[in-house]
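S.,

As promised, the glutathione run. Input:
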Amino acid sequence: MGQLIEGVWTDERQDAKTSGGRFVRKDSSFRNWVTADGGAGPSGEGGFKAEPGRYHLYVSLACPWAHRTLIFRKLKALEDAVSLSVVHYHMAENGWTFADGPGVIPDPNLGADYLHQVYTAADPTYTGRVTVPVLWDKERKTIVSNESSEIIRMLNSAFDGVVGDPTVDFCPEAFRAEIDAVNEPIYEHINNGVYKCGFATSQEAYETAFAALFAELDRIEDRLDRQRYLAGDRITEADWRLLPTLLRFDPVYVGHFKCNLRRIADYPNLSNYTRELYQVPGVAETVDLFHIKRHYYGSHRTVNPTGIVPVGPEIDYAAPHDRDRFAKEAAE
Ligand SMILES: N[C@@H](CCC(=O)N[C@@H](CS)C(=O)NCC(=O)O)C(=O)O
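Predicted complex:
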């Protein structure tokens, strides 16, 4: 995995060689917000007004952080308003690329061969990781944001007065505090926790992350025994932030990242919940297990030197689920 240094791509990175072999994820760099009136958002500068056709999303179908943004774009009916590029699943010496391959959607804005060219177009002296997702402003020819948690908040509401489906709200004011409260430990121990397991370079760091990951999964399993969704009786942002990790867990994280105490399939509530969310109309179209498996197993050669992609496991996310038991209980 490489990075940009002063706008120049370099193939080297001191990635997991952090204190005690722990993997530490660096904060995202572009933190501006698209807003309804173009005013500044919670961070960054203003000048990014919500307008149909103005913004473009660069994603990888493999990446769980990018996956959240695809789900919001789909469920908020913003596909025509926010255009899309998809990088190749294989991330190697050039980072993410637009090389020809199944499912790749090239860059219509800059004709870039590599995603790092999009970053240097926004900031010619950029230093840092070149990550997906990226929200690009075609008008100002710059990156609005490369932070998925903030991009989904923008997609959830900024375009409501102009385009998309304003009746869909995954972050209602009344749920906000609860959503933030559940998001925090899930991010720390599950979304990012699987990476802390997989990219640890010391036994101790791996075992610490592993214990925290399964403690949090157990806690969520218990919560989902009492309520249908993470923040209560309706689907919220918290659910869409967790789903991409759950979908990748059994096919990838159990083996590749050594998260193997239990599979999601071994958790009755989590597995039924995963299937219910997967079956929400539109969501399955955002899931690409081919990109997911090829990317992780093929790109992380420090973790899997041969690049061999396992054939299994057999998983049917479209199989029936039992989550409507909560609706039945409420009706009784
Ligand atoms: N905090 C970022 C993290 C994004 C991220 O780490 N994306 C990964 C793919 S899953 C990436 O692009 N990695 C490339 C690299 O680190 O060089 C977000 O949530 O948007």
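The beta strands are 3-5, 8-10, 55-59, 82-86, 134-137, 142-145. The first helix runs from residue 64 to 75.

- D.
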